[in-house]
Write a structure and sequence with these properties.
- The structure is a single chain.
- By secondary structure, this protein is mainly alpha-helical.
- It folds into three domains: 14-70, no CATH class; 89-184, no CATH class; 198-285, no CATH class.
- The protein is built from eleven helices and six strands.
- The chain has helices at residues 30-33, 60-67, 102-124, 130-146, 155-166, 192-195, 204-207, 219-230, 234-249, 255-262, 277-285, and strands at residues 14-16, 23-25, 36-41, 53-58, 72-73, 89-90.
- A hairpin with a 6-residue loop joins β1 and β2 (23-25).
- The radius of gyration is 31 Å and the shape is elongated.
Amino acid sequence: MKSFKKVTTQELTTLVCDGCGLKASADDDFEFHEFISIGHHCGYGSIHGDGNQLSVDICQHCFADMCGDTLMITEERNPIPEGKDTTQLEYSNIFDVICQSKDKAGQLKDNCDLRLASREMLLKNKITNNDELTVALKRVEQLWDAQYQSTEGNELHQLADLICAYEKKDWDSFFEQAPLADVDFMPSRLNFKSKISFNEEKTASGMLSNIPINTEVDDESSRDSVLADKHLDETKQYLIESITNVLHKHPKLRLGQLLINAMNFQQPCPELFHIEDNVLAKKLNQFE
């Protein structure tokens, strides 16, 4: 003989986000399965005490907006060999790691660690050892590539000031000697020529090769006389002299690169950033 009782079964079919009102059905794709639903029985000492029930359903987007900056992301929960060190990964946004490979996840972790270490240096406003100097240089490289400016100010310039203070140098000294930093800092600059091929005619030496040169005239006296005759102001005199000096040292540089290498950022010449190579070549031809 068998006895039965009636059991009512409920199946969840729809979720509505308590934050933005997004409605997701079980028949839909990933949005339904990415909902975060919490049903918690509150203790008598909690904020919502007296044994109340706390229930909330929010979509992944609202969840990221509310908690994304404080989430701790870990790898998939596989059995971990005994004695193996485990570390938690911190990200500013949980969705930075969704659908990323392990290599890219590792890169995100390294970038995060670099950002946090840089933040600590900026808070104490000082670099105290070579390890911190290496971190600062890597962060500068990261910011330089992204042309990034933080909401708390220009982090790139703040780090550069700390680096100069630690090495007891100023900005100008970095434009007077090469290389600008250690070999492991922005290594692509050292093999720039091998990555970009250009016609010899488009280099500074090629574009200026047809300028007649009087070998009987001293370079410095000739340049000074031209500058005096043209009645150039001090800023333009300094710029022409700098470009000429760098041209002698690096004749293979294109004129755009030549201008950046010769530029002193303390001199007010913003319009020169927009000059074309051929226009600059014509202007330099005038000083023959």
